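Dear Dr. K.,

Following up on our conversation at the group meeting, I've run the structure prediction for Gfo/Idh/MocA family oxidoreductase from Flavivirga jejuensis. I'm pasting the input sequence below exactly as I used it, so you can double-check it against your construct before we proceed with anything downstream. Let me know if the numbering doesn't match what you have in your notebook.
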Amino acid sequence: MLKVGVLGAGHLGKIHLRLLKQSEKYNLVGFYDADETNGNNVEAEFGYKFFNSLEALIDAVDVVDIVTPTLSHYDCAKQAIAKGKHIFIEKPITNTVEEAEHIRELLAEHNLRGQVGHVERFNPAFIAAKGDIKSPMFIESHRLAEFNPRGTDVPVVLDLMIHDIDVILSLVDSKVKNVSASGVSVISDTPDIANARIEFENGCVANLTASRISLKKMRKARFFQKDAYISVDFLEKKCEVVKMKDAPEQPGDFDMVLQNAEGVKKQIYFDNPDISDNNAILDELETFADAINNNTTPIVTLNDGTEALRVATQIINCF
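The predicted structure tokens came back this morning:
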């Protein structure tokens, strides 16, 4: 079992601690938190060992799980890599693209593994649908959340939209050609609602909307491609796959058939895949353990995290 330690015991850090404790692929050694009072409270309540220094925790483990505020990701990752430790780092990977590229270079130099916590890649609805998503040409995503003061230290693009940016970049096999966007600061000092349009060299267009001041939650993405429409509901963990094929010569009474102006007939049918329930955070952590143990490429690499941050930064620069 890999010895693992967690940096940061905030809301998400506590979730990581709980899941790593129950995982059969890790031995949870303990955690470090810059807030000593919070660290002592978490240790007293849950029994995880609280290390009084970041260096002491890094020295005691094989894998460092970085769940600190984004501004500290770079320094934490550098220290862990310098000590020869594999790193799991929450999204966004770092505060700037330059920092992310440097971390990526350091990891390669030390022949270590790294993974970024883009958890929607492990969402069961996305896993079920992604096999049907082939060469999408138009993508629309909505990620809406009710207001929560936690996370408002960064623009909504880094807080929420970056999930969908990463998903889209993982599916579109083409380079980004152009990015345009607009955002509005309503409550925070940084944009709380934003819309972005990403154009790819192959002609695919993605239209993304993210808000943290909505009255209801929504996390949906729709993918349109030749002869198919795929909808993924990341929140409800549901997906819908609608396909078209040449209509039979004699359609059945319940067949759905469309005819275009040229007289071509297409049959519409549903091909919804089965969705297997899972814990996405536990899965992303355990597949990282597999990548380390088997010396294979993690599912969400530091390169993936860097490119998602690069596009997010381009969007933010449009405001």
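Two things stood out to me. The chain has a mean pLDDT of 94. The longest helix spans residues 156-171.

Best regards,
J.T.
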